[in-house]
Amino acid sequence: MDKELAQLQAPKRTQTVKQASFNKIQTTIHQRRKRQKRSYYSVLAAAAVLFVFLAASIFTGRQPVGENTAADLVTIEKGYAIANNSTADLRYMTNWYYFEKNRVKEEDLALIQPFVTKLYEAGVPVDDLPKAPAEQLLLKMSTGSIAQIAVISNNDQYVLVDMNTKQSLPLTFEEAMNIDMMMHDTVERSLLGLVRLLILSFLIAVYIAIVLQISPAKKEKMESRNGHRYFFAAIGLYLIYTLVNGVSLYYFHAYNGLFIASAMALLLFLKWLIDYYNGRFESSIYEVPLLFIFTLLFTFVKFL
Amino acid sequence: MFQLEQHYEIHSDQIYQFLYFLTFDVQLAEDLMQETFIRAYEARHTYRGEANVLTWLRTIARNIAYDHFKRKGKIQFIAFTKKEEDIALTLSPEQLFSIEEDKRALYQAIAGLKFDYRIAVVLRKIEGLSIKETAAVLGWNEAKVKNSTERAMKVLEKKMRGGAAYGQRAGAITGTETDPDS
User: Fold this and answer.
1) Those residues with Cβ within 8 angstroms of residue B28's Cβ, 6 or more apart along the chain or in another chain
2) What is the pLDDT of residues A110-165, one digit of tens each?
3) DSSP E strands: which ranges in A97-156?
4) Is A25's CB within 8 Å of B41's CB?
5) Going from the N-terminus, what domains does chain B have, and what CATH number goes with each?
6) Does the predicted interface ipTM exceed a cut of 0.90?
7) Contact state of A224 with B16 under an 8 Å Cβ cutoff
8) Model confidence, pTM
9) Is the confidence at residue A72, as pLDDT, over 60?
10) Inter-chain contact B106–A8, Cβ cutoff 8 Å?
11) A32: chain B residues, CB-CB within 8 Å
């Protein structure tokens, strides 16, 4: 049997067939290169369009906070305590993605409610406002309008001020301290940076352990596991997000990182679709949905 | 370093033969061989020269053939972990006609082997690769190569013994027998 098998030969290929095959290989390689180039140019074009769109949105989306009328503003629907470290006020930053903010608890809103009602019923307009403090409140009223409220010290008198209508309500020292502490607690009501870092490190370790030990792609060579590239791309994206946030805070006094990061995540997703379409993944494709799950977990930990 | 023209000239016949005994189809083997060289060219930067080029090309060819059968639904995925199920290759009248009459039974028997067994027989017995080389091509350990080859040969002998009439039926085109041990 062994001898018989060793003597088996596939039908012979003629020189013409060989040459024709080689020509076909070269043509196919050429066509695939062209197709690949086209797909990269499409991604670049999409990136350019997105960039223009985002830039336009950022610069045209600066609407004033105000337009609140005293008569409407009686019930607070929800509120955020804002950590605004810039010297500029918030009147051009209504869109939610501009803020680093924390939701105010219902019981704290109940504490604010009587002061806000009084502010709009009996508030006195002030002409000369001192610099707004870093911690402020952004309140969404039941009418849909937004009010930007702060506690400020004006000539040794504490007042609650609507930063847009300039209406003010005098507060006692205790009232002012209560509201101020509530705002401060809300802003600080997140996990300590170190704890957050530990949780993130733990999640990253779990992710890497899954990818290295349990993933069906573990037998593939590391450099050919394209899922890995997306993992590092995601880390890069997070770094860019942090950088953009820093630069944006410095120059525009606003946090635009999430906006940019979303756009880049979309581009990364598009690239992944193209790679998937071109069959660039083997079993490491399973690492991509896993990465998305972990990205959600990272995001969740970040906003804890 | 992989050089398309040079390595095509040297290895295309061997890759073609390897694919022919996996598919028993001249045109399909030619197409898959072309795809093998295209993929090799596209992935040339991943070739690190640890294995020789022919081993690397055979690995690519094996994956392409496997993907082909998977796409054609000839390999049934029963469970996630059970990847390479039996494939039932039935030689067509044209395929049988192109084979010398005295070898038809043997070809039928090889074609009837499940994919893992067939690839082990092709590499070890037809191509004459060592256990180590075969393990490198297939990404198996040497014990698996040895076991699969031995079992495949037993199945093959059984088929040949039990199916004497099966090969004798001139021009007869029969379906593939099921492996007794599968």
Assistant:
1) B19, B68
2) 988 999 888 888 888 887 777 777 788 888 887 777 788 888 887 778 899 887 78
3) 101-103, 124-125, 135-141, 146-154
4) yes
5) 1-72 (1.10.1740.10), 76-182 (1.10.10.10)
6) no
7) no
8) 0.53
9) no
10) yes
11) 38, 42
